[in-house]
Amino acid sequence: MSGLPKRQRVAAYAVILRDGAMLLSRLAPTVTPDELWTLPGGGLDHGEDPRDAVVREIHEETGLDAVVGETARVYSAHLPGVWRDGRRVDAHALRIVYEGWVSPDAPPPQVLEVGGSTMAAAWQSVADVLDGSVPVVPMVLEALADHRPFRHQRLGAYALVRRDGAVLLTRISARGFHTGSWTLPGGGVDHGESPRSAVLRELREECGLDGSVGELVAVHDDHFSGTAPSGRYEDFHAVALAFDVVVDDAAEPVLTEVDGTTDAVAWVPVTDIESGAVPVLDLVREALRSPTT
Fold first, then answer.
1. Which site in 26, 70, 86, 110 is 20 to 30 Å from 239, CA atoms measured?
2. Which carries the bigger pLDDT value, residue 41 or residue 1?
C-alpha cells in the first residue's frame, strides 16, 4: 500500500446530547450504500478555525445553530487502501471532536446541504446507539466513551419569606431542570457579589419585592445531570444558601421574570407542602425546618 497516493484530512465534529439522545447525521449513499450514522461535522476549509468549521457543518447537516465548547479531543486514523474520489488512497484522518449543544427549543433537525455527504439528521437514542440498534461509524462510539458532561458548580442565594402560615415560593418553568416544582425565590450569586445582596436582587427580579435579610437558615446542595437552559448537558452541583428575609406586610408578589426559569410566584400554605399537595425542592423543606423568627 506504500505506493498509493497519500491523502490527509482534518475534520471537526461535535457530540451533542439531549435527554438521553444524541444528534447524528446519516451518511449519503454516495459514501456508503448501507445505513450508517455519524457525528455532525466535516472537513475544515483552508484557513478555517476548527470551532467555526464544526458550527458551519452542523448547520449545513442539521439546520441547527450550535454552540461548541472551548476544548476538544483529537482522534487519528490511518486508513491505507480506502476509496476516496473513485480510487484507492493511503488516507490519514485527523478528527477534532468538541462538546456541543443547541437551544432546547430548537426545531427538528433537517439537512440543508444539497448533494453533500449526509442525507438525513435526527436525534437518536444513546441506548440504541450503544446496543447497535442504530448503526454508527466507530468514531461515534469512541467519542461517546470519552465524553464527560460539562461540570458546573453554582452558588445560589435564596429567600425564606414567611407570612401567616404560608411561605413565598416560585415555580420552575419549562426552561429549568425541575420543571413544575416550587422553590424559594433566589438564584445564582454573580461574581464578586455578596450572597446577601444577591438574595435581595433575585427577590426583586423574580417577585417584584424588596426586603431585609436576616440570618442564614440553611445550606443545601444538590448534584444531578441534565440539560441546562442553554441546551448544554451538564453535571450540575448546586450549593444553595437560604436566608431569612422579611418583606412589608402589605407587599404582594408579582411575576416579573419573562421567558426565564420562573413562571409563577405565590404564597403557598406550609400545610400543602407538608402534605405533598404542592411539589417542592428539598431546599424548601430544609429551610422550613429552621426555627420561626
1. 70
2. 41
Q: Name which of 124, 160, 166, 158 is nearest 141 in CA terms.
A: 124
Spelled out in words, what is the top-level CATH class assigned to the domain 6-146?
Answer: alpha beta
* pTM of the entire predicted model: 0.76
Please list the residue range(s) of the chain that carry CATH number 3.90.79.10.
Answer: 6-146, 150-288
pLDDT in tens, 109-128: 999 988 889 999 999 999 99
Start-to-end C-alpha separation, the chain: 82
Q: Output DSSP code: residue 277.
A: S
User: Do 276 and 231 meet the contact criterion of CB atoms below 8 Å apart?
Assistant: no
Q: Which three cell numbers stand for residue 110?
A: 433537517
Contact 198, 154 (CB under 8 A): no
Burial of 182-198, coded b for 16+ CB within 10 Å and e otherwise, reads bbbbbbebeeeeebbeb
pLDDT at 292: 65
- 150-288 CATH: 3.90.79.10
* DSSP secondary structure string for all residues of 154-207: EEEEEEE-EETTEEEEEEE-TTSTTTT-EE-SEEEPPTT--HHHHHHHHHHHHH
Phi and psi, residue 260, nearest 5°: -110, -155
